[in-house]
Design goal:
The protein is mainly beta and about 100 residues long. The chain is built from 1 helix and 8 strands; from the N terminus they run βββαβββββ. The strands form 3 sheets. It has a 3-stranded mixed β-sheet. Strands 4-6-5 form a 3-stranded mixed β-sheet, with no helix packed on it. Strands 7-8 form a two-stranded antiparallel sheet. InterPro entries: Metallo-depent_PP-like (IPR029052), PP2B (IPR043360), Ser/Thr-sp_prot-phosphatase (IPR006186). GO terms for molecular function: calmodulin-dependent protein phosphatase activity.
Length: about 100
């Protein structure tokens, strides 16, 4: 998924659940409402995504239904941690790797 989440407060037009992603210059940004619709249509409970640096290695967003995981610590010389996901018996466990 190359689109990024956006907070509902950041969307001015209530009819828009998607906005162009000017930060990346490609793909779109999506609201929590758009995510809920996607999950419902595809009979899913959550989306796990990557490709966006998170300071703690992961971030839970959009009413707990979206999990962003970034597995590379100190990305491009930064100070971010790394994390991974373990899916076991219909449970997701986030493992944060302290790389300091």
């Amino acid at each position: 998924m190359w689109s990024d989440p956006i907070s509902s407060e950041a969307i001015v037009d209530a009819q828009k659940d998607f906005l162009p992603n000017s930060k990346r210059g490609t793909a779109h940004m999506f609201s929590a409402e758009a995510l809920e619709e996607f999950l419902s249509r595809n009979e899913l409970s959550h989306v796990v995504r990557a490709h966006e640096v998170q300071q703690a290695g992961f971030q839970v967003q959009q009413k707990g239904k979206l999990l962003t995981v970034f597995s590379s610590s100190h990305y491009c010389g930064g100070s971010n941690e790394a994390a991974c996901i373990l899916a076991d018996r219909q449970k997701l466990r986030t493992i944060r790797l302290d790389t300091t």
